[in-house]
Batch of 2 targets.
Target 1
Amino acid sequence: MFRVVLQDGKLWKNCIETISSLITEGVFTFGSNGVRMMAMDPSQIAMVDLELLPGVFEEYDVKEEAPICVDLEEMKKRLASLRPNDKLELSYSDNRLTLRMVGTSKTSFTMNTLEPRKSSLTNPALQCSATVRLLADTLKDSLSKAKIVADNVTLEADQESFQISATGSTGDVHIRIGREDEALIDIDVKENAKAIFPLNYLSDMAKASSISKTVTIHLKNDHPLELDFTLGEERGKLSFLLAPRLESR
Amino acid sequence: MFRVVLQDGKLWKNCIETISSLITEGVFTFGSNGVRMMAMDPSQIAMVDLELLPGVFEEYDVKEEAPICVDLEEMKKRLASLRPNDKLELSYSDNRLTLRMVGTSKTSFTMNTLEPRKSSLTNPALQCSATVRLLADTLKDSLSKAKIVADNVTLEADQESFQISATGSTGDVHIRIGREDEALIDIDVKENAKAIFPLNYLSDMAKASSISKTVTIHLKNDHPLELDFTLGEERGKLSFLLAPRLESR
Amino acid sequence: MFRVVLQDGKLWKNCIETISSLITEGVFTFGSNGVRMMAMDPSQIAMVDLELLPGVFEEYDVKEEAPICVDLEEMKKRLASLRPNDKLELSYSDNRLTLRMVGTSKTSFTMNTLEPRKSSLTNPALQCSATVRLLADTLKDSLSKAKIVADNVTLEADQESFQISATGSTGDVHIRIGREDEALIDIDVKENAKAIFPLNYLSDMAKASSISKTVTIHLKNDHPLELDFTLGEERGKLSFLLAPRLESR
């Protein structure tokens, strides 16, 4: 049993919208240290890791750790009706999750929860040789541009810049975000890094620009990628891992 | 033969848009006391009653009572081209209805009229035990929320609140608009009232929030519902009746 | 080989969007006097003539006249990603056209060019007996209105007004833009003119209201129509010719 309140319900709404484009159901664990949801996508290529610390919530009352599994598409549909200034309360009892929205009226959506599948997912400690922090909107825009010409995208980091490129049958695209561009906030490259990723997954992940102004990208040659959208001190983050595409180049 | 002018053509446009989602053709009677249009929907579950008094019009010149029958979908398509500040003139002669829009240019749409089907519809005097006045947008929003989980909705009024609820296979929703909420303007309950209605009809009716800030709901246990969207003193109203769904509960 | 820069990339984007709704590929000739693109649509009913003078460009560096043929749909897709304040650079070398967008990051789209089909198109000197200058948005709006009732439209000019009318199975529409209307900027009629045109082509042409506030229409009885969207002194224009529909009336 728990009951938590978000002054700004939009944060939860945006998290669920982003996550639901990658996975269909998720096990949220409400514990004393916050809410955690980790899941692999069905094809085992991408991993989602959401962590919301108690500092995000206006009220946070969790008596006992409770893992609850929900259909994310159903939750997303309900959250779509949240009005801009609505407060959002999540509570759980008797195997039912309640989303309560308080604005000009009071709406309670009660949802059935699902039987969680057994899994012991842990976030693997990724190696990386390059870390880049960008404006999240610029990453999202750049991936949309790459999608115009191809299905896969090459991400690349060197001392001076972060680069996004793609090649398709009708032409190619090359995007450079250099130290001189305002979109590049920070770049720390121990060793140049380059890898290819599937664009549909990356574009879905980049939707998290709705919850964070910046995104941190961790890269290593032909290794999985990590994307971190942080919410600020003591608030948490939404992270993604994505396996590279190992194509003959 | 008649000729009437609306300074703000948007009122007519919004009325027709709302009505055309419920019925396909309508007989408008232009008389000395204003314009009246009453119609049952094809499945005989819902009734529409539009009454626009001469006070709504800038000019109102009706020589002789004329019932004209028009295809509402066709009229709606033409009205969609009305620009925000366009004046709208409706006139009729030789079995042809003309919609004239005057803005940066002058547009006249002439429409064929249809042979009206014989019918002697009168607005039945409904009984009701509860009358509730709400912000019309709140009703519209609440019905959208109910639609997320189900096809039917329960409306309920007691001394303290108006309630909207629905139950579906994936969960349920309960919306309470109480005396303490700004969305509830007035509530007068002689006897608690509760009935179930089909959501698709109710949602179509709630589109009339485009013509009125508030809506008055008349309810009685398992009886038809009346919704009134009034335009103000001496201006008229758009009303709807809807049969309840008598389900085993 | 050439390299030209547009401070406001939106002009090129809007031109290509308009043109690509009429033709699928175009041969752009970059020469010392500017850029020219002339093409007939596949059904030989409409002709497009784009002329951008060097004055439109911030930088204009063309060494040697180069005709390049591109897939307009592909170019349009890339230009859709242009952000409002992006600078646009077009350059060509080794049979590859590069669109470079400079904003918060730097994006280079490189496109394959196509083998231009042989053709020696020249803009025929049209005869006209009536010339009308209108607000381009009013023309676009009026054609949308005509499209509600029919597939063809009659354009007509006399001493006092320009008129657009159409007749369909459900009714007709008549739009009058007279000397007294602000939408009519200039009218010069030597002889009344009237002709019928296919609406789908005309509507596509009217999209050029995105590049010019006004449009000049050249008409003559049952003769082809010319529409000119000018960009101002020393900047160029986008023109269209359209064959009339010679129907039994």
Target 2
Amino acid sequence: MTRPTPLSGFPEWLPGQQIVEQRFVERLRSVFELHGFAPVETRAVEPLDQLLRKGETSKEVYVLRRLQATPEDTSDEQLGLHFDLTVPFARYVLEHAGKLQFPFRRYQIQKVWRGESPQAGRYREFRQADIDIVDRDEVGLHYDYELPLVAAEALAGLPIPPVVIHTSNRKLAQGFYRGLGVEDPAAVLRIVDKLDKIGPDKVVAALVAEGLSDGQAKACLSLAEVVTPDASFVERVAALGVSDPLLDEGLAELATVLSAASELAPGLLVADLSIARGLDYYTGTVYEGKMRGFEKSGAVCAGGRYDNLASTGTDRFPGVGISIGVSRILGLLFGSGALSASRPVPTCVLVALPDEARRRECDRIAVALRARGIPVEVAPTAAKYGKQIRYADRRGIPFVWFPGEEAGAGEVKDIRSGDQAPADPATWVPPAEDLHPTLG
Amino acid sequence: MTRPTPLSGFPEWLPGQQIVEQRFVERLRSVFELHGFAPVETRAVEPLDQLLRKGETSKEVYVLRRLQATPEDTSDEQLGLHFDLTVPFARYVLEHAGKLQFPFRRYQIQKVWRGESPQAGRYREFRQADIDIVDRDEVGLHYDYELPLVAAEALAGLPIPPVVIHTSNRKLAQGFYRGLGVEDPAAVLRIVDKLDKIGPDKVVAALVAEGLSDGQAKACLSLAEVVTPDASFVERVAALGVSDPLLDEGLAELATVLSAASELAPGLLVADLSIARGLDYYTGTVYEGKMRGFEKSGAVCAGGRYDNLASTGTDRFPGVGISIGVSRILGLLFGSGALSASRPVPTCVLVALPDEARRRECDRIAVALRARGIPVEVAPTAAKYGKQIRYADRRGIPFVWFPGEEAGAGEVKDIRSGDQAPADPATWVPPAEDLHPTLG
């Protein structure tokens, strides 16, 4: 075969980058578990009608067909790859409700797929890390600040630029538009959602084209321009002189969220009334996290409250969730050279091989070192020692172990400093910072 | 919507089972890294022509199409979901060869998909954990025993029945058939591969139907019945009186593998000359791991040496690999009730909420406990304490924390024993065995 070429929109990392992603995911997982979130994985596919039930992403679905399926073969439902982890989770909750305890806290870290035309930064396959809490009938408002704070805590422990979670409330915006006398609040939301991309002038123009008066359009823009680090947005909105009961409800909910967040973790959340979120299943609080220095690249985490996503005729499971765009964050930071691992292999020690006949002895040195948690490889061939040291050097392996003439004896060399000293495989330990690759 | 129902062939675990899978994967990952394998993930899709290039699984591929693709939309190559991790890895090696160091050791733990008719135990979506070593032009024979021993070591640390890796060599069987005067050794391999499923009589009948004489068919069966814990299979084969240079090469290679394995880790590998492996990219050593008590359920890990899978006109990267069927092992053990987690949530402590107004205080207790790595939730509502204790009990959360009247004071109750004692959130630690869910 000829040398294969990359597929646009399907990112693949080199091993050093994969080590970074692995550490990244471990950090998220560990913080999620510290907060009592249990792991869930859903299958990659959902029936197509489920995927098309909500939101505006229907055009982005990949549909599956069995290569050998015949026209008469109608046994398969139409299946599509999931495009997020919220819709599958809602289905999972309904399917397994009888075996779950509510409120149910879960995290889910998986790939999702969107069959869109790839552009810069737009992936067709990417990893998300979601946390959600769902409950029967009603889910407490305190989760509206708990969830983004857990996500922010998880991200804050990583060597990445700070992420601030911009927060708003659907009711606030919808009530405001209704109070203004706008006919189709959803259409306005969709236009205002583009503020970051198209700028204020084009937003006003699009709103006027939608049928709003100049005054209405400018009021919508003024609302979207309110950004405060605490609950002071309430006065800013009051000054705009619009009143509506849904607006009041949204203001009160968002004030509760911002007050708690600014007390518990100052600076991680801001109220930003431009935030709308495209998917239409959100019904209250909504989030978009932006990473410092990459604000123009869009949200690195996002979510909100959905009161109606998971329901049958008899059961309803409202929820609050937030999703971290793992691949998006990594793609941005790898792209700008801002994040890497100290070496592209886990190996800490290469055991040099003096002679192919002595491989078993070298294997035993490796076993002794591994028994104390030290990642070790034995050299692939009994090449000249210089070549074996280059093998380690090219991979960033910090130590080379030279077996002695007698079993048990030996020396270990730090190939960065050149220091070499006698060592016993049963007791030697590397400096803690060299044991595993580190991120930076 | 109505209550959703499961999709046949797409297993989904409950959270307690997902915790088991998570631990399982962490164990594999940690052993793989101890042996210097670096992580790789490939995209879920490959160009269809790549997937159909080798082997007999072409009929099992899921092909993708964008839902909104138009007939004129020919920009997309035909893409299919990968059905294993070896074919994508071979493509990855060729694509990124210039940026990798050889020999290249990688592990890869991902879902794969096969669009087959689901039967008992046959999954359409499942997780595999693969390790492979590839090198330029040639890859050392010592990897043929290193790889299965790493897989066996990883599995041996899990609370599952022992896995024995049955090992053979394609050259041995093919040389034997050629020495017998059989015309199509590949066809014979495919029939003998079914020995476990259809039994010796049907194998002989199928071989005769293929054109073999009765004597040839019985000799093929005799070869397949050779199983030894060490290199003594060599004499057993010699006694069958067939000679061929390729047979001798296969015998020598397999003897090297078995001698080393029986010295380094007695009992983990056996020579089993019935092993053939269906996929036709293997060229030498082949493996099939069987789990005690589940031998009839087929291989729980499998692999082999492939000298020709990854090559362009100018470059060739032979390799050796083995793949652990994570979903298959879990499915078998969950199905027989033989493996579970001690609780279905990570939470070790539930902080009881005396009054909604005191939530912030309870949040701070949780923060203090989490700072020392203890997984904690705060109760969802200020229900009566009896109800809050039931919340913990239903989830298997071992401890409930009752905030005192004064900030900082409080008591912690082990709800299994009923023991309750004053405790300080800044210093209290649970018994080590209660900190995280355990497997059993």
